[in-house]
Amino acid sequence: MRAFLLLLSLAALAPLAGEAKAQIIYGNPTVLDGDTLDFGGGRVRLFGIDAPERTQTCQGASGERQCGADAAAILGSLVQGQRVTCEQRDTDRYGRAVAVCMAGRMDLAEAMVRAGFAIGLEQFSADYLGAAEQARAARLGIWGGTFQTPAAFRATDRAFLAETADYERALERERKRDSVSARSATSSSPRVYFRSCNEARAAGAAPLRRGQPGYRIEMDGDGDGIACEPIRHR
User: Fold this and answer.
1) Cβ neighbour number for residue 92 with a 10 Å cutoff
2) What span, in angstroms and rounded, lies between the C-alpha atoms of 150 and 162?
3) Band of the pLDDT at 11, cuts 50, 70, 90?
4) pTM (2 decimals)?
5) What pLDDT is recorded for position 3?
6) How many whole angstroms separate alpha carbon 207 and alpha carbon 215?
7) Residues 56, 62 contacting (CB under 8 angstroms)
8) CA distance 55 to 32
9) DSSP one-letter string for 178-194
10) Over the stretch 98-110, which tens digit does the pLDDT of each residue have?
11) What is the pLDDT of residue 181?
12) What angle do CA 23, 125, 101 make, to 5 degrees?
């Protein structure tokens, strides 16, 4: 089934940093890596965890292993054929939603941590720290050997840094295009000017409220933000 994205405002939820309202994202996603889903072009990071990057390797009992690819494969098996629902908690520096995602009743972040292919991020949530400790004690997944934290890998891997730089440049170009489009729309908007309230009334535009085309403080005799109000007879 073709992946799709639906954003549903939840007025009952507390506003997010940089967001006016929380969002629900759902559909049949594809997997980009061990903690990132793609809903038809809308990327979502799993909240509260960090998984090895797709190209990251770890050391196991039998030598080097592709733990990043393994993490992506495990997340892929968890979402395959599933309707996934994500409740946004934050937005990362690249504008991607960071969310708690469920496949049925299964919390995908918790499942990845319990499998030993993600670590809990205590600075964001304590929800997954217990499951991470259990996986570490059982030496599951990446805990079966030694590994760099995903953050440390990202900070030093040249290929990852180059990809990130390309992504940031693309975002900056998009922001500039949006800014130019906004300025163009503003400059092309027709200016409305009335010489008097009689002229505004004759045009059927009165009353004029502050911020509306044609409003001028000079026409707002009582300064209440409404110009050319109906004349009240005593």
Assistant:
1) 10
2) 16
3) very low
4) 0.65
5) 37
6) 9
7) no
8) 11
9) HHHHHHHHHHHSPP---
10) 999 999 999 999 9
11) 65
12) 40
